């Protein structure tokens, strides 16, 4: 498989984390298959295992709908440096890294993760895939003398600073729309969110993230670019098909990032 988008190597990489989630029909007895899954991951560069209970919050439709909290078992496998991790539950597998280089490397590990979980749980013959989602989180730290607007396209600049009194002015912009992923309708969300609390990742990713070096301290204004592209439906549990769709998700994210999110001047600075 090959990308159909540009490749722009950046030495001053703003990327903090990349993850891909594959959600499938539940395997209620996943714990039975974990020993074989763990052994396969141990032999392919993920020797560190952690198991824990996590709480999943589900919001029902409508304002008055009840909020449901479900406890699930989760298994995590990390490489020696703990910069790559695979998360497994009864209904999903997630690959994530804070040491991203090229998508081709990421895609190979994604194939390993999906193929291992589906094959060892026998779900490649009895289950279905419901969701493939790819997410990129970048963090912009302006160089001296430059503001965040130097790095973002005009449509993401927010309200001018002079509207407010002197002090913190935090931006939160979100765009959501439909895409096509192969022959299937997809959804992409682009969020641009600022904080001055020293956070390098969105709150929902912090607890399970692989190791990373914090890039900002309290009081420093940073801008996170959070791009989430996914496709949902009922698909065959085929790891090759999953990886092919991940390439399409990736290519659309990359082209959108360069043509519609960050400026050409920002890319030149990061090179």
Specify the structural class. alpha+beta
Distance between the ends: 26 Å
Largest sheet: 9 strands, antiparallel
Low-confidence stretches: none
Succession of helices and strands: EHEEEEHHEEEHEHH
Annotation, overall tally of beta strands:
9
Q: Characterize the overall form.
A: globular
Helix coverage percent of residues? 25-40%
Please characterize this protein's 3D structure.
- By secondary structure, the protein is of the alpha+beta class.
- It is built from six helices and nine strands, in the order βαββββααβββαβαα.
- Strands 2-3-4-5-1-6-9-8-7 form a nine-stranded antiparallel sheet, with helices on one face.
- The protein is globular and about 60 Å long.
- The two termini are 26 Å apart.
Summarize this entry quickly.
By secondary structure, the chain is an alpha+beta fold. The chain has helices at 30-43, 103-120, 123-126, 203-206, 239-261, 264-270; strands at 15-24, 48-59, 67-78, 84-88, 92-97, 129-140, 172-181, 184-195, 222-235. It is 26% helix and 34% strand.
Secondary structure layout:
Layout: E1 15-24, H1 30-43, E2 48-59, E3 67-78, E4 84-88, E5 92-97, H2 103-120, H3 123-126, E6 129-140, E7 172-181, E8 184-195, H4 203-206, E9 222-235, H5 239-261, H6 264-270
Antiparallel strand pairs: 1-5, 1-6, 2-3, 3-4, 4-5, 6-9, 7-8, 8-9
Helix pairs in contact: 1-2, 2-5
What are the main properties of this structure?
single chain, about 270 residues, alpha+beta, 6 helices, 9 strands, about 25% helix
């Amino acid at each position: 498989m090959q990308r159909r988008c540009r490749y722009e190597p950046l030495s001053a990489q703003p990327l903090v984390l990349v993850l891909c989630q594959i959600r499938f029909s539940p395997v209620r007895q996943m714990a039975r298959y974990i020993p074989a899954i763990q052994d396969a991951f141990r032999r392919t560069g993920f020797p560190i295992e952690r198991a824990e209970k996590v709480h999943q919050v589900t919001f029902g439709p409508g304002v008055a709908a009840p909020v449901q909290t479900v406890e699930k078992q989760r298994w995590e496998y990390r490489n020696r440096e703990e910069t790559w991790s695979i998360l497994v539950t009864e209904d999903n597998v997630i690959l994530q890294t804070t040491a991203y280089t090229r998508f081709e490397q990421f895609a190979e590990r994604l194939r390993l993760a999906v193929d291992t979980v589906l094959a060892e749980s026998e779900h490649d013959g009895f289950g279905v895939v419901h969701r493939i989602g790819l997410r990129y989180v970048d963090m912009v730290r302006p160089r001296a003398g430059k503001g965040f607007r130097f790095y973002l396209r005009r449509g993401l600049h927010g309200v001018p600073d002079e509207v407010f009194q002197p002090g913190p002015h935090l931006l939160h912009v979100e765009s959501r729309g439909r895409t096509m992923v192969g022959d299937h309708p997809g959804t992409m969300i682009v969020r641009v969110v600022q904080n001055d609390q020293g956070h390098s990742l969105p709150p929902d990713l912090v607890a399970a993230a692989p190791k990373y070096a914090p890039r900002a301290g309290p009081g420093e204004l940073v801008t996170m670019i959070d791009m989430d592209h996914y496709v949902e439906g009922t698909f065959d549990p085929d790891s090759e098909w999953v990886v092919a769709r991940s390439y399409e998700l990736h290519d659309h994210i990359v082209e959108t990032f360069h043509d519609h999110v960050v400026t050409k001047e920002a890319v030149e600075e990061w090179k």
